[in-house]
User: Fold this.
Amino acid sequence: MEIYIAYKFRLYPTDDQKRLINKTLGCKRFIYNYYLNYLKDNNSINRFDLHKDLPKLKEENEFLKEVDSTVLRSAVDDLSKAFNDYYDKRKGYPKFKSKFSKHSYRTSCVRGTYKEKEYSNIEVDLLTRNIKLPKLGKVKIRGYRNKDKIEGRILNATITKEITNKYYVSVVVVEDILVDKVTHTTIVGIDLGIKDLVVTSDGIKYSNPKVIMKFEKRLKRLQRKLSRQVKGSKNYLKTKEKIARLHAKIKNYRKHYLNNIANEIVNDHDIIVTEDLLVKDMFKDKKKAFNKSLSDACVSTFLSLMEWKCKIKGKIYYKINTYYPSSQICSHCGYKNSKLKDLSIREYDCPVCGSHNDRDINASLNILFEGLKLYYNLVSLV
Ligand SMILES: [Zn+2]
Assistant:
């Protein structure tokens, strides 16, 4: 099976390399904004017309010739994607790109042979901790200390400059992997929440790490501070940068933590069942809008990690319908208790069968049963 893997490294460019990266980002922004302005009055023009127009624009603006030309073409593609999103009503009208936001550019990997030697314009060397990139040459990197080489074929690299002035490179690789044949014997249901991030039908609860809660408190404080500051002032920008830094920190921490949980669960089970979480009780509470955005991000990261890990390890992964009332049904007798819509009830005795249920573990058991139904349907079809 062919899979795509993205490796993200912190990039340590020299001052000259930084200048070139910034110049490339500037040129990409220039192209994007130039054509956005142009399309305002000529909306019958499509992406191919713009690609044809690009050489002319380059002739008129010498500085565009100094940077990686694939990047300029990708600016046109980005713009046409933004317009498609707008026409399909997925997003608003494309906006001009400002100098003060996060920026990135993607460059494609080109391969060839020269004097019988294989050549590639993007190469990662994990032993000397360097990456070779078009126009930039060798740049220092950090990350993946546990690996000594990257397997597979490199497709492209995306260079990102964060608001915090840190640079990263994300390298996408295609790898051919052998998936083990698994005899499916064990099954687990998983409930996702805010207090406990992940609860399994084995009765294991993985709570939000204390460190993250501490970061989140700090984040709330900073956001309150920001709302009181004068927009655009020096202190305002300082606070904004602090917030961006903290966001990145939380994101990394959480990803690492979720990755460990996902590994544990996928290694121990053959069939994994979760909810397809988009609308859940906990997200409907408007007072928790702050928690919502955080847990949204967290849940979607976790679900995609699960999907991915199950795929490469040959396990079965089911997502069940969001509207299935997993937390209201007693997992012992099947009685549906609508009183349990009240989220503050964490534990209760079932009025019909009398069994004592923990809200989240009970929900994860129901999710497991739904998964079993899907599995038996699948088996009986064969
Ligand atoms: Zn019951």
